[in-house]
Amino acid sequence: MLEELKQIVYEANMDLPKYGLVTFTWGNVSAIDREKGYFVIKPSGVDYDKLKPEDMVVMDLEGNKVEGKYNPSSDTATHLELYKAFPNIGGVVHTHSPWATSWAQAGRGIPCYGTTHADYMYGEIPCARCLEGKEFDEYEKNTGLLIVETFKEKDYEAVPAVLCKNHGPFTWGKNAHEAVHNAVVLEEVAKMAARCEMINPEVKPAPQDLQDKHYYRKHGANAYYGQN
Amino acid sequence: MLEELKQIVYEANMDLPKYGLVTFTWGNVSAIDREKGYFVIKPSGVDYDKLKPEDMVVMDLEGNKVEGKYNPSSDTATHLELYKAFPNIGGVVHTHSPWATSWAQAGRGIPCYGTTHADYMYGEIPCARCLEGKEFDEYEKNTGLLIVETFKEKDYEAVPAVLCKNHGPFTWGKNAHEAVHNAVVLEEVAKMAARCEMINPEVKPAPQDLQDKHYYRKHGANAYYGQN
Amino acid sequence: MLEELKQIVYEANMDLPKYGLVTFTWGNVSAIDREKGYFVIKPSGVDYDKLKPEDMVVMDLEGNKVEGKYNPSSDTATHLELYKAFPNIGGVVHTHSPWATSWAQAGRGIPCYGTTHADYMYGEIPCARCLEGKEFDEYEKNTGLLIVETFKEKDYEAVPAVLCKNHGPFTWGKNAHEAVHNAVVLEEVAKMAARCEMINPEVKPAPQDLQDKHYYRKHGANAYYGQN
Amino acid sequence: MLEELKQIVYEANMDLPKYGLVTFTWGNVSAIDREKGYFVIKPSGVDYDKLKPEDMVVMDLEGNKVEGKYNPSSDTATHLELYKAFPNIGGVVHTHSPWATSWAQAGRGIPCYGTTHADYMYGEIPCARCLEGKEFDEYEKNTGLLIVETFKEKDYEAVPAVLCKNHGPFTWGKNAHEAVHNAVVLEEVAKMAARCEMINPEVKPAPQDLQDKHYYRKHGANAYYGQN
């Protein structure tokens, strides 16, 4: 069942340690089959070097396990809310990648300081507030709902990443591969923004017209980066 | 004698350079056989790339060498005091891993800034004071006793790590493997906490209910992370 | 056509990930055949691990593609302006290498703090201002013209590197290999300058006579470094 | 001639890139045969991946090349002065290792903040002033003489390292291997001291009795670290 998607999700998960984004099991990738209404996600707490494509867990959009011998990632309910609220995404990634997590712990969104950021994400990468009180009762679900709320007036396709305060980042994309790609970009951008502020504590975000130029060089009808 | 435990301790020691926690011989792992009352530890100053399982040294809980051609680690007396005072631990690790050591040199405990920390350690990781005066006469033993004193009103199972001021970290766990795992976690947490303060010098520790949520997601009767 | 130069440019491009200067496709190298009046450049957005020598694109100095199945790098117009204005250069490199990019985002030139810098670059590495307004209409061309303007009163052979504000670095050299070499030097120098200021916020640039001594130890008629 | 020492010096030079201490050719190791009065040093500007044992250059203590097809390292005159002034050393290392060089550029000695430092170096690692004026006429020789002057009231065996302001570090030891070992220690210590000050800007050096304890645990008649 969904063997091809399991293979894709397996490979996308294996890319996390390859790109230095995870220590131990601190990350997970999922991808959705919109037609069937199922998504495939990494099992919870299984070591990357023991992971196999057939270990991936199939879930439906009510949060029921459809297939798989393992429990799904403990963050499954967060992925689920993102798939429900963001209709154009096909993959979701969660990591504790160190620079992005440091910004999340610091409780700050990442300002757009340059074109590396602007090429992929349009404007500041927001930091969602910490959950509180009763929201912890359904922690992972409410994390997802909070991310959705954070994007109420933002374009989730133009900014495919969020920081959850005191926790870490989630990224997404049109498929699992692009979601992982965005997780790598986020970590690089987070690193350079922190160092940039160290080098110049008075630094201001990049001018808006530079942000526009670089974002639209790669996105939209007039894009001219790459081979398309 | 204790061949299986020697193999385990050997492998746990070899994990230290694998995870980037040691330069040269700056680290050691031990593990205890509680029934027999013996513990097995790395020999002192032997290069990791020459280390063999049979080089491990067997000690009793009075600090006598029971078997082994080499001298035990110079930190053996510290390990011994931890085994005596903390009845539920099975393994101890000492390293000079760079971020944790930087906090130890700075003389500060590591505040809990996020869930990466809270998933493994409950609250601040304490920094024990520096020894002084006559305490240096039995330096390694007194280092152990000082760690024990530091945990007089703390739960050593909920916080399996300590920083020794001007020195470096010790971690422990229910066995050697878990103690090494906690040493890796500590280094990641130390790195992210330092960067977090760089990004936001006014940062506050994570809210208590987030710390509770994440710690109990992985520990205790209601844990639901992983496959158990 | 220009098969040898394509091979050289291919290898120089492959050196970028080897030296840790690029993530994904965030960089490009070109080299010029001054006699023929053509230059060879990496295709746009092609993954490094799929790149082949024959994928390189041949351009003339009016910006026309002369040969190649792919689109040239989106930064081609910048390379072109540098070749036209700097007659003694044979290769150009653009990257988003993280430390140099952090300085570019910070909007600061890199002061010469020591001999590592002085051995290769004579004085501060300048940071060109950000483009603005109508300059974005021909963004890449104007980036090149702005770099040229920045060197109006500077010796482009003595300082073979520039930072473009909110963007990243360009370096050059007498051929592609030397341009890549200078990109590596720039990243090391950028890293050490940032850390140097962290260690001593009051630090001043190296004395002028030290800068002279080291630069002329390697350059000019009295050079005595190396085997020539 | 001196084939065994050439092999040793070759291997010690190859350890520099292995330990991440050099970029390109930015480092050199030498070792002396005190009986014969000759020392062996890396040739100038030869790539590490092309270096062979027979490329090493043999020098006498008047600075004459005794054997070798290449020019000796441009820093040879500095090594020479150290061999003449420090009778118990057998090897010398120069690198531009990034953390130690950042301290040198910052113009600060490295305070002893902990036992990693104290295990190898007794007290602050000094930063020699920058050369000036006529001293640049015999730059490398005067660098050596300045290091010697810096140790006029310090024990060069207890502190086997120095930073040259605006330049970088030199280390030494009883042979080439130990000199390289000390270069690795210096880089680790420099890294942790910088981060330590970042974590606690008010940090003070480690108490003197801790420094004594750790230094004498490894050095002198009562040493008990290791297998001797």
Strand order of the largest sheet of chain A: 4-3-2-1-5-8-7-6
Quaternary structure classification: homotetramer
Question: How many E-type strands of chain A?
Answer: 8
Largest sheet of chain A: 8 strands, mixed
Secondary-structure-derived class of chain A? alpha+beta
CATH topology group of chain A: L-fuculose-1-phosphate Aldolase
Largest interface: A-B, 33 and 29 residues
State the share of residues found in helices of chain A, binned by percent.
25-40%
User: Under the CATH scheme, which architecture of chain A would be assigned?
Assistant: 3-Layer(aba) Sandwich
Query: Which descriptor suits the 3D outline of chain A?
Result: globular
Number of domains of chain A: 1
Distance between the termini of chain A: 33 Å
Q: Would you identify the CATH H-level superfamily of chain A?
A: Class II aldolase/adducin N-terminal domain
Beta percentage of chain A is 15-25%
Radius of gyration of chain A: 17 Å
Low-confidence stretches of chain A: none
Count, helices of chain A: 7
Name the helix and strand elements of chain A from N-terminus to C-terminus, one letter apiece. HEEEEHEHHEHEEHH
